[in-house]
Amino acid sequence: MQMISEMLDKAFEKVKDTKGIIFHSDQGWQYQHYGYRKSLEEHGILQSMSRKGNCLDNAMAENFFEIMKSELLYAEKFETAEEFIKALEEYIDYYNNKRIKNKLNGKSPVQYRTLTHGI
């Protein structure tokens, strides 16, 4: 649970105005954890979870993980957990800031969000 808490703290440092954000996830145990739910609530974030066994409710996240697995997980061999974590952090940065998507008019997710929402 410590990694999840650290991830949330990093996100809250980057995005100061979190009121009204909807955070959608699957029903993983970490997303149901009291501390996690309380942290979202304290920051004014509405939590949304997919229905059990329905991957279509969380299609964007499912799409990300499918791409990440094919571009990183299945393409590389990692000797240690630390090596994997470092590569994953680098991949997430690449995916959000550099990897363009046709559905986003040739922009990365961060570029698109900045242009459309000013965030």
TrEMBL record:
Transmembrane segments: none annotated. One of its GO terms (molecular function) is nucleic acid binding. GO terms for biological process: DNA integration. InterPro entries: Integrase_cat-core, RNaseH-like_sf, RNaseH_sf, Transposase_IS3/IS150/IS904. Residues 1-117 form the Integrase catalytic domain. This is Integrase catalytic domain-containing protein.
